[in-house]
Amino acid sequence: TMLRVVLADRSGAIPGVQFDVPNYVVESLKAGDGVEVTGRVGEYRDELQVNIERILPAELEDLSVFLPAARRPMREMLAEFDALRASIQQPDLARLLEAIFGDGTFYQAFTQAPAAKLYHHACVGGLLEHTLCVTRLVETACSLYPELQRDLAVTVALLHDLGKVRAYDPRSFDLTQEGVIWSHLYIGASQVEHAIAQLAGFDAELRLRVVHAVLAHHGKLEYGSPVVPM
User: Fold this and answer.
1) Radius of gyration from C-alpha coordinates of the chain
2) Fewer beta carbons within 10 Å, N or C terminal of the chain?
């Protein structure tokens, strides 16, 4: 069996090739996972490639070492996000944010996820960085228009792209099967609705508004929103 791969880290990508590879080695490899490679760099058709001698799966403990990372320091972004969560005074909205982001496993995935494959914030921590950008815009709007419900607007800003945690692969940044079939808008709205269903006494009108906002945040049907903003 001949193996052809593309090896990549933060600095770029290079093709690799290995001949007479046992099937069990090929079957042990998965696109987007880490590998440890031994080989020699040579030329093929005037381009560099790695002539692989050995390739083994390897665990990547810190994805930001190997993948593009957010421009802002992670610690700074986490502090800002936690401060925004803590600023929500409306009891039901505060409970909802705690139910979703108080789950340590999910929160870790959220803070590491990309916000897109190509167009914006396509990096480790990109979803967190994008969420904070949107929330700052929302806070500015609320300061200019006091009649807006600040807690509701900020909560929805923090939740609006929640579905991207499941819609994008955290290593390849490709859309997952769920992301392709369902879209991150439905995935996020479904997760929010499920979380609300677990919170006894959650205000019924507020439930409609929060889920609607997540579904409608792309603004137009042709941009992917299943409903338009009301």
Assistant:
1) 21
2) C
Phi, psi of 207 (to 5 degrees): -55, -45
DSSP symbol at 15: E
Instruction: For residues 18 and 40, give the distance between their C-alpha atoms in angstroms, rounded to a whole number.
Output: 11
Place of tokens 């998965």: 30
Residue 45's identity, in one-letter code, is R
Please give the model's pTM, rounded to 2 decimal places.
Answer: 0.83
pLDDT of residue 8: 86
Residue (of 112, 137, 139, 140) closest to 126 by Cα position:
112
Please give the Cα distance from 138 to 31 (Å, whole number).
38
Alpha carbon distance, N-terminus to C-terminus of the chain: 58
- Please tell me whether residue 176 adopts helix, strand or coil conformation: coil
Pairing between strand 12-18 and 34-44?
unpaired
> pLDDT tens digits for 80-96?
999 999 999 999 999 99
Amino acid identity for residue 61 in this structure? E
Structural contact between residues 127 and 166, judged by C-beta atoms closer than 8 angstroms: no
- Report how far residue 213's alpha carbon sits from residue 227's, in angstroms, rounded to the nearest whole number: 9
28 CA to centre of own chain: 26
**Helices and strands of the chain, counted as H and E runs:** 9, 4
Residues of the chain falling short of pLDDT 50: none
